[in-house]
Queue: 2 jobs
Job 1
Amino acid sequence: MMKWLKYIVPASLFVLVFAVSAIFMGHTLMRQEALGLFLLTPDWFREIFAEPFPLSHIVGGFLVQFYRFPLAGPFITALLVVAVYCMSERVHRLFEAPEFPSALFAGIVWFLSATLDKVSFLPAVLLMMLPIWLVSLLFQPKPSAVRKPSFVLLPLAAVLAAAIVIAVNPSVRSNERWSIVEDATRQHQWSKVLKVATPETVSKDREMLPYALLALNAQGKLLQSMERYGVSSPEDLDQAGVQTRRGYFFESVLYEVLGCPQESIHLMFQSACHLPHGTSFMTLRQLIRYNIETGNYTMVRKYCGILGRSPVNRSTARSIMAMYGDREDVVRDEPADSAATITNNPIFNLIVLDRQGIRSDIAADRFNAYSLVAR
Amino acid sequence: MRHLPIIIAALALLLSCRAEVTVSEDLPLIVPDYVGVTVPEGIAALNFELADGRRFDRSEERVGDTLFITVTARAHGLQPAVKYRPFPVYISKDSIDPYIAYRLIEPGYESWHDMGIYQRELASFKETPVVTNRSNGQGCLNCHSFPSGDPSRMVFHSRGSNGGTIFTDGDNVNLVNLAAVGPQKQGTYPAWHPDGRFIAFSSNTTRQCFTIDNAQPIEVYDTASDIILMDTQTGEVKAPAVLNTPDVLETFPTWSADGSELYYCAADSVADPVADRGKVHYRLMKIGFDGSDVVGEPSVVIDIPDGSVSFPRVNGDWLLYTRSGFGTFPIWHKEADLWLLNLTGGETFPAEALNSDDTESYHSWSSNGKWLIFSSRRIDGRYTRLYISHFDGQGNFTKPFLLPQKSYSHNSLRLKSYNIPEFVTGKVASYDKATKNLFGL
């Protein structure tokens, strides 16, 4: 029995990290994949090696590819945290009672990983521990003391405390909400957006308001439901002029919904400029999608070629190429000097789109909403 | 065992089939298309692929100044091996500058993340940074220029807070905010005088507009532009009235070979530069220069009612320029092509060998005037790549070749465009550290 005690702490740690990550951070980890990048290309490696701690970025980037699968992120996170525990435990075994300090350390690392929201953090910790752990292998650990229940209970308590702190942490909860809302918006899953972006949630986080309103807009409920959200000005309806990754991302999806994928491409590029590599997995997938919508299959092939340099995304890229790889670009021969242009005014843009024949109930409702709120 | 001879015979037949090579009189379809190009001695290896993706073997034989490359596509499935007709690559006796410098930037509209000015050794695939925007807090770096390709002196702009124009002279690196000096106009496109003392800058207020659903997604235009002259010896900056007229957009200065004339582009400004952008046509102008200031009145060299002139660059008696339908930023114009102007005879004609169905834009001459490097978007219509061509001095270019890379896929995997390619006569020092110091980073 006693010899199995040494496995209880790491096993419990794994289960707890996996469960908490899956329940409270599942979408956050998927968003990390969306905003991450790992490409087997010379340019990607050159950019990585120009940064500090390149090895942790390589390991983190490699692992984050798998986070697009719903439970892969929690699973890998749990493995990494347990690895931190095991390496720490081996070092502490040179002294006495290794479990509690190791569990405490693993719990702190896990908490920092969850709140910092950086993919490379856990690999960085492991890589820094690696030399110490390797040195510890050269020494004989102290003989284990007689195991008392506290040898297991104290570490478990430390781990449980970390789990609770993470689960209730406001920034972890906020990241998770935002991850759900952004991903659902990107996939046009409007009910899912509204499930999270409720009037109460939005009243505490006004930045989420345009997402809620877009979801209502897309469901044909904007005009009758927007009052519940406390809309008070036209700026509440969009993120025009908001020069952040999130602001541009919202606008890119908005213009896709309005039927203007060319502007979506522009805005997706703008959004991506705020990312560490100037692009990401999600950026590439969105650019592929928007270029399919505009009929620019040359760009679809290019971005598929790049996306295919991520081992986990290779099959996705191949599937897209199988569908669109042989298509000719749609020819547009309207003279460039008289082509209609987007402006900085989102309301006027709806008029411009309408004049171009890009019409929809969504655009009409949106225009009416602007008019109502502007009064 | 009694079937063994049959099996062996069948295997032998199969192997002999697979070993059979069909000899074709066709030239191989390769990417990039290096068939019949003219290259300088010592250029990096011309790596290519078969357009159909088949694996192949390659052999080369040099006969005089011609390299014959034989491609044998390997057997693939039921397709037998095919040995294609050898194709020539002509080796020029004219030397080429050993380096080129360019900016790498995402063709992403208004913003950027990482960008930098890089140099590439033409005899190898080595690409190294000269200065990146890690040195100026992710600001913009642009418009690098070398006097007659001299790597020890360079000018480039560093935009962002506390930005300005950076001048390098060996180890000396100085930042000058041109907007705070003299006529207080910021510098944009630079042109070194052949004597290396004066620089003509255009000073542009640039904007963009984005189309809703057009083959040309962006139009970049100037709402105002003028030309200023800087004396790098004294630091004095002048804004000659004749090059700073309020209703005229003066831009893209460039010098004649002997420095006695300044060429530039000019267009009448319009009330609504977005709605009326099709009416903005830049003509090529010139004005005299007496060694310290412009003299005389400007005269028109080329005026195209249905076209626009950009990027004039002089090479002896020739001037190469980019011609587009309208406007001042041809990289977004599919119809943009390179045209030659004979400065003595006055005739102008398209440089047919260089042009494609897509954009050809920025270009520059090597120090001996025998080679041209230019930007083109012919591969995919969005990401600018570099091509090099030989010039015979008589108005003729050879078939351009794509800047060699370790593999062709490098061109499709790179998410950045090559911008402002310039020949450099030697290796440029790295200015990252010095630039960081200037910005206190």
Job 2
Amino acid sequence: MPWPFTLSGPDFLLFYGLAFVGCLFAAFLLKAMHVSLVSEESFEQRSELEPYELTFLSGGPELTLAAACARLETNGVLDLGRKGRKVQATDTLPEDAHGIEKAIVSATGKSGKASAAALRLRCKKELDRLKRSLVRGGYLLDPSRSLAFQALRVGPLVLLGLVGVIRLLRGLSNGRPVLFLAAFLVLTVVALIFLAGEEHTITERGKRALRGLKERNAALQESARSNWSALSGRDQIVATGLMGTAVLSESVLGLMSSMRRSQGGSGSSGLISSCGATCGSSCGASCGGGGCGGCGG
Amino acid sequence: MMDQHERQGQLGALGVGWRPQLALEIERRQDIGFVEIVAESFPNGHVPQAIMNLRERGLPVIPHGVGLSLCGAQPPSAERLALLAKLARHCESPWITEHLAFVRAGGMESGHLLPPQRTWEALDVVVENIERAQAALPVPLALENPAALFAWPSDQLSLVEYLTEVLRRTGAGLLLDISNLFADACNYGVDALQVLDRLPLERVAYAHLAGGVACDGFYSDTHAHPVPEGALDLLRELLARRPDCPVLLERDENFGDLASWHAELDVVLTAQASAHRLAAESSGVA
């Protein structure tokens, strides 16, 4: 048998542990290098992001759909119920509705209802359009390039895992102790799920854009925290893009949970950290003058 | 060092009390010339990015204290003075403002701005407190006349005598609260026009205007209701005497109705424009 299969048990574990750490380090380093390399290229010149481009950049498809549903709910076009499990159209769309809002209402079809999973599926075209726009602008990595780089990032860890599995099977057939190696393999699987699970990667340009927008829109965030209902629909979408789920109502948060569950719980929800359900009940539409100060943003 | 006239010129004509609920409206309204922040709302001496953005745009930011208790028997707190000083430096403020009121006594907080005793003895203490504060602050202090919740039976000086004497002895500026003067006129029969005639109006850093409501025959300066016509008339009287006086609109509650807030700002601008026009006409300037 070739090396490293000829290593003794403890030596193999040491090799595996070091190689595992090395693979993770290389994966993160590759991502950082890829992101910064991409940012040096010239892209479509943009002066500002549209509100739904901002929500997609900061929180991906889920936050974008949530923001659009929140707007439609505020306008009385949608009813999300208390827990947001189903979406029901209750009124007609205004003429100046955005494409994503039209797609959501259209997703409810003749029945006027749609599940969270169906919503995401039927809005894919509009969501992909937003993604392509952000890729053209250099704010998100090109998905096709991302795939190649993903393969480069996870490949070594996959190979290491295979080596570990082979060693595990050999150990089992020889009646040797394999508990520590099994634990390492579980860690490897978890790491692979984490590395492979990122849906979209923001570039340095994208991060700078988000930082700049947050700074320039500080006043909007103050008003969003303390006087949400006084904001225009457009301002509410921008606030959602800047502050994430902290400003969403309980029903919209419930819808986001349903969407995540329908995706098998995989995928990153984006860069904005959310307060989750603990914040939802005290934020968003119910905030009014009381503010969402405790939820950060 | 800048003199009082130069400091007054630093402020735009129209100011607003900055509140988080109004942050976006303040940022978007281009005719706002200065903002006031409640100092105690920023206990670590740093203001949020939204206010710094206004500052970067060139808007003066004025720390307005509510807890110094200058008219109390105790000297002003070193910690509170340090906070005001820190905010003024951080925001490069031309003024710091506080109230001619007391808010604590005997170890108890009143929770409200209470009127000073207008006696000569009490005045000496107040002047000493103001001088201590001025020594500790990096920029000039302007003092606001509060609305009296009650009247002391032992008052020796009238409101205008008291204010004039404080200003004379301390050299401080005056933050003339028109709405508080209106409240005193409603509740205690103060002759507001006489006050305006006799005050050294050149010492007014800027004026406050706010809404209020009468309840059970007592007018309260709530900062949550529409500005009454009587207070607006008094503002026009002030502007007739001092057309260049900056005016700041205060609102602390009722932020759902932003249209009325904008409308009140427009009324102030109209009053100021009218005063300027009349002043130009009366001086024969084309």
